[in-house]
Write a structure and sequence with these properties.
The chain has 560 residues and is an alpha+beta fold. It folds into 4 domains: 91 residues, 2-Layer Sandwich (Phosphorylase Kinase, domain 1), CATH 3.30.200; 197 residues, Transferase(Phosphotransferase) domain 1 (Transferase(Phosphotransferase), domain 1); 149 residues, no CATH class; 51 residues. It has 15 helices and 17 strands. It has a 6-stranded antiparallel β-sheet with strand order 4-5-6-7-9-8, covered by helices on one side. A hairpin with a 3-residue loop joins strand 4 and strand 5. The longest helix is centred in the middle third of the chain and has 43 residues. The radius of gyration is 38 Å and the shape is flat. The protein starts with a strand and ends with a helix. About 16% of the residues have low confidence.
């Protein structure tokens, strides 16, 4: 028999990992109760899990041949009167609250060793904690179904003045009994608080100053060990569970239980809209959760049904907004890439402020030829291949590099002289990513018609292969690829950031250039409108006799 170190479940020796949490199973001593009979009615089959107070066994009711779950108090806890009273309280609470979303209690008894036990439903499913751990946050539609059932179960308990006080993902079990696939059952009412119907006194086992609950999900009044804990405490805890289920994060970040309790008392939770960039449009859910996580119970939803109704409506509205937002973002990214590709194919580049297509081709060929010429290879064999690759680049160019005028040569010579002087004084200047980006944008003509990686047809003005989703190499890179790898084309590593992993769309420089063309026209239009408004206001004022008299008196007063 093997046991799981995480959930303490026991399995046969043939298994290597736990089916629930994929942890490596460890061989251990068999539980002494497994294989025995309890109360002459139940046969203990295996161990489901272990906790701080007891062990949960999988058992079979012999008369009905039905699987049950038996929760038994640890043998060393029998002498603890507080633990025994808490165990009895869970039995009393669960027996009074009968609801299809709350675990059902069938029997209560005492073992031959004096250990009390509870016989409850055997639930075949996973806890919400395991579901979030393995499959991530819930979708809004699924969360609406799950939390609707949780609210129904808690409402039934609250109607009988029962407060759970330990709501957390571990105590919410998801079974596959419902047609939708998610059937919720609330378990572990060991910390619940029950009012007696006769005296209306708080039936509580916890002593004054005793803190009960799980720190990440405790309400502020639980952190203060307040005896007056009402259903609004469950509203706070369920709000945290909903926050974590939708986002995958807790609203507070803490490194210890004490720090977490301090956050519940004095900290400000991270708004749900800031938990993820996708949730910035989810204002409705954010407002509902912020209200549920209020420090004062009077500022929260006053009952669990109110919280459930607000959460249901918020999930429905924000769910549609979230889908629309994601769809718009996908369309915007596609349109940016499409518009940039169209601009590159036409060669007009109105937003980049570049020259005509013929002059652009000359610049591209000149730049590619200079880079290919400056490429150095040590061996003679690679040198001969480099000359062949450079000859292909020269043949591909349209001999436009011979038409440069003397003024440009003098300017380039002067710039080279200044660069050498500055390098001698201050050292070599590192290459600028912006300059390299400009060179990359200018190199648009390519010495090949098919993609070097997948052989799909490509346009010379689009430096991106839509078939294999890869950035196309420049003319110089293509020459180096042919020299270094022959038929197997592998691009050489560039010392610059070519932006191949950048998000598709126009670059920031292109957008700034477009804005520089648009802003002067808008400014000129506004100035003309302002001058026209001033002239019109002056003409209207001069036609008013009282205004003219007032101005004359004012001028006379200044002259005196």
């Amino acid at each position: 028999m093997k046991s799981c170190p995480e959930c303490y479940s026991e399995y046969e020796d043939g298994l290597e990992r736990c089916p629930a949490d994929s942890s490596l199973l460890k061989s251990g001593d068999r539980d002494p109760l497994v294989g025995t009979r309890l109360g002459d009615r139940y046969e203990i089959v295996s161990v489901i899990g272990r906790g701080g107070m007891g062990v949960v066994y999988k058992a079979r009711q012999e008369q009905m041949d039905k699987l049950m779950a038996i929760k038994m108090l640890h043998s060393h806890m029998v002498s603890d009167s507080e633990a025994v009273k808490r165990f009895y309280r869970e039995a009393k609470t669960v027996s009074q609250v009968k609801h299809h979303h709350i675990v059902t209690l069938y029997d209560f008894g005492m073992s031959s060793q004096g250990q009390p036990f509870l016989v409850m439903d055997y639930l075949q499913g996973v806890s919400l904690k395991d579901e979030l751990k393995h499959n991530g946050p819930l979708s809004f539609e699924r969360a609406d179904r799950i939390f609707g059932q949780i609210v129904d179960g808690l409402a039934a308990a609250h109607s009988l003045d029962v407060v759970h006080r330990d709501l957390k993902p571990e105590n919410i079990v998801l079974s596959s009994n419902a047609p939708t696939g998610d059937w919720v059952t609330l378990v572990d009412f060991g910390l619940s608080k029950l009012k007696e119907p006769k005296t209306q006194d708080a039936y509580t086992i916890t002593k004054t100053g005793d803190v009960c609950g799980s720190p990440p999900y405790m309400s502020p009044e639980q952190c203060l060990a307040a005896s007056a804990v009402d259903p609004r405490s469950d509203v706070y805890s369920l709000g945290i569970v909903a926050y974590e289920s939708l986002s995958g994060f807790l609203p507070y970040k803490a490194k210890s239980a004490i720090e977490m309790m301090d956050c519940h008392l004095y900290g400000t939770p991270t708004p749900f809209s800031q938990a993820s960039t996708d949730f910035k449009v989810c204002t409705e859910v954010t407002n509902v959760l912020n209200k549920a996580l209020a420090k004062e119970p009077e500022q929260r939803q006053q009952d669990i049904l109110e919280f459930g109704k607000e959460l249901h409506e918020a999930l429905a509205r924000d769910g549609m907004k979230l889908k629309s937002y994601k769809h718009r973002m996908e369309i915007a990214d596609f349109k940016d890439m499409e518009s940039e590709a169209e601009a590159l194919m036409t060669g007009s580049y109105p937003t980049l402020g570049l020259a005509a297509e013929g002059h652009l081709n000359a610049i591209n060929n000149q730049t590619a030829l200079e880079i290919a010429t400056n490429t150095q290879v040590d061996s003679n064999y690679t040198k001969g291949n480099l000359q062949t690759g450079a000859h292909e680049v020269v043949d591909f160019s349209n001999n436009n590099n011979n038409h440069s005028n003397s003024d440009e040569q003098e300017t380039n010579a002067q710039r080279n002289w200044i660069s050498r002087v500055m390098s001698a004084v201050f050292g070599p200047r590192p290459p600028s990513p912006v300059e390299h980006e400009e060179e990359e944008e200018l190199e648009s003509n390519l010495p090949y018609a098919n993609c070097p990686y997948c052989q799909a047809p490509v346009r010379s003005m689009i430096r991106f292969c839509i078939s294999c989703q890869r950035q196309l190499p420049s003319a110089a890179e293509y020459a180096r690829m042919r020299v270094s790898a022959g038929s197997k084309l592998v691009p050489a590593k560039s010392q610059f950031n070519t932006g191949r992993h950048a998000k598709p769309g126009f670059s920031n420089r292109a957008k700034e250039s477009m804005n520089r063309q648009a802003y002067p026209g808008i400014t000129k239009f506004l100035m003309i409108g302002l001058v026209g408004a001033c002239i019109y206001a002056g003409s209207v004022a001069l036609k008013n006799p009282e205004f003219v008299k007032t101005m004359k008196r004012t001028v006379a007063a200044f002259q005196k």
